[in-house]
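User: Can you recover a sequence for this backbone? Please restate the input before giving your answer.

Assistant: Of course. Working from this structure:
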């Protein structure tokens, strides 16, 4: 069993930056696809980005391309989401997720039901 714990959320002004961290425990996630999703009240969970197990392929939704970047430190069993040039529309609870399939194609990576493990989420609020 894998436990994922997110941290690094908070309140930031538009144009600012935050770095979210997802720490995994219980099992090494160096063979997993790791992803970030976000959710706002009343809406479905939205894919933000993902990294294949080796970090060689990353996917992002169009709205965050060029602003967000996923990296992973497999030695520390950690995945990071660097968020720059934040906008009020980025306000959401951000979730870390892990899939035991190490390489997901994009059409699968964007689907929440492809992921086996989820963190509890961390709130990101961007003020205008």
């Amino acid at each position: 069993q894998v436990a994922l714990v997110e941290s690094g959320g908070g309140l930031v002004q538009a144009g600012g930056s935050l770095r979210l961290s997802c720490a995994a425990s219980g099992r090494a996630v160096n063979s997993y696809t790791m992803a970030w999703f976000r959710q706002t009240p009343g809406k479905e969970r939205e894919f933000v980005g993902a990294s294949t197990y080796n970090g060689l392929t990353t996917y992002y939704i169009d709205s965050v391309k060029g602003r967000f970047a996923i990296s992973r430190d497999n030695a520390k069993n950690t995945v990071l989401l660097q968020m720059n040039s934040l906008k009020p529309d980025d306000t959401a609870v951000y979730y870390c997720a892990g899939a035991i399939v190490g390489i997901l194609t994009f059409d699968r990576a964007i689907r929440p039901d492809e992921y086996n493990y989820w963190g509890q989420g961390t709130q990101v609020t961007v003020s205008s």
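That completes the design. The helical segments are 106-109.
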